[in-house]
Write a structure and sequence with these properties.
It is built from eleven helices and five strands. With about 230 residues, the protein is an alpha+beta fold. It folds into two domains: about 45 residues; about 170 residues, Glutaredoxin (3-Layer(aba) Sandwich).
């Protein structure tokens, strides 16, 4: 077996000292390097967003993938929702989105998971439970129930909702604790991170981005402007 030296081992002490001396004497070099890296990252993110918006218009199914959808089947006007079931702003936005979809049967609503587990301890568990409900065709009623009973998120609620929706409980339990659930949610989160989403909710309506508990009027105006 060939032994590959570590990066630390191949750096000569003299070279390391020289580099450190340069940084100490010219800290602006390090700052410029960091700024250049940040600029590169921003450019890459902008390129991805442009590609994402283009795909959403020309090949929406490539973005929707296996995510739950409701509303219009035409996928002409797509409202993409990145959300967290324990986020209070997402709960506030839930009522707005519900009214918007009820008023516009030409809009397709797509849900993408972005549970902020670091600040919302029940976010991931709720996401997995909703995904499991979706495997039995009940994502949207489960989605409604999670947001309307957000203050009760926990194991008891997840099972009660499954029973109330007449789900096969054994399958529900298998699905929500499965690797498939983890991978599906991770895929949504990966997309959100590539776009640069840092908080929830975030909505994308026909390529326009809206962060936070967006007012109904904002969605109405965006839809109207895109279709005129």
């Amino acid at each position: 077996m060939i032994s590959v030296p570590s990066a630390q081992a191949v750096i000569e002490p003299e070279l390391e000292k020289t580099v450190l001396d340069i940084i100490r004497q010219h800290p602006e070099v390090l700052i410029e390097s960091v700024q250049a890296y940040q600029k590169q990252q921003q450019e890459q993110q902008q390129q991805f967003i442009q590609s994402f918006v283009s795909q959403l218009k020309t090949n929406p199914q490539s973005i929707i993938a296996n995510s739950p959808t409701t509303g219009s089947l035409t996928q002409k006007n797509i409202l993409l929702e990145f959300s967290d079931f324990q986020c209070p702003y997402c709960q506030k936005a839930y009522e707005t989105v519900k009214e918007f979809i009820e008023n516009h049967d030409e809009v397709t609503l797509v849900y993408k998971h972005f549970p902020l587990s670091s600040i919302h301890p029940q976010a991931m568990a709720a996401a997995k439970a909703s995904w499991a409900a979706g495997q039995q065709g009940k994502f949207w009623p489960y989605y409604d129930a999670l947001f309307t009973q957000q203050e009760n998120l926990g194991e008891e609620l997840y099972l009660d909702l499954a029973k109330n929706l007449n789900l096969n409980i054994n399958q529900f339990e298998r699905d929500r604790h499965s690797k498939k659930a983890e991978l599906a949610i991770a895929e949504d989160m990966k997309l959100a991170e590539k776009i640069g989403i840092q908080g929830t909710p975030l909505f994308v309506l026909n390529g326009q981005f809206f962060a936070g508990a967006v007012p109904l009027s904002t969605l109405e105006t965006a839809l109207s402007s895109m279709n005129n």
